[in-house]
Amino acid sequence: MKTLHVVGFKNSGKTTLVSHWITVLKRLGCEVAVLKHHGHGGAPELPPAHTDTVQFLEFGAVSTLVAGGDMIQLIQNKERSFEQLKALAASSEPDVLLIEGYKQEAGEKVVLIRNEEERQELELLPGIIQTVETAELFEDITRLDDWLQEWVEARQ
Predict the structure, then answer these.
(1) Which site from 3, 111, 135, 156 is most exposed, i.e. has the minimal number of CB atoms within 10 Å?
(2) What is the rounded CA–CA span in Å between residue 120 and residue 43?
């Protein structure tokens, strides 16, 4: 499994790039999984309050897993290490794991930068293999797509 982080500050285009690259990788015949850091403060949004899942959590379950229709939904009320989260995300045995965020964790990184101030702060991160100006996402995404294809092929 190939692993690539897409990192940057809020509203730098991380989700836009990861979403786009999922479609590019699928066209290349890759199965893709994503691990995203929820950096908006607090817990991610739960399913609607009337669901069995939320009821189980409200009654004290530490985790709930719902399976059906070729899908699994897992919610845990327990902090996990980055390595444990990667293992969970990789449990579907994807060809590529895209990681949105987790700037400080080890791994190859594509860094999205909006301005010089961000560049100075982010260029110190470990594992940078590509730096992208946010404006490039909307000007010439094909250059980045070509880079991604080369990155995938170099690791096969």
Answers:
(1) 156
(2) 30
89, 101, 125 from 28: Cα distances, Å: 20, 24, 29
- Please provide the size of the chain in residues: 156
Residues ≥6 apart with Cβ < 8 Å to 76: 62, 63
Distance CA 44, CA 2 (A): 26
Both tokens of 124, joined, read 């110190």
Give the number of other Cβ atoms within 10 Å of residue 1's Cβ.
Answer: 13
Q: What is the pLDDT of residues 30-57, one digit of tens each?
A: 999 999 997 656 666 777 778 888 888 8
pTM > 0.90: yes or no: no
The token pair that represents 1 in the structure block: 């499994």
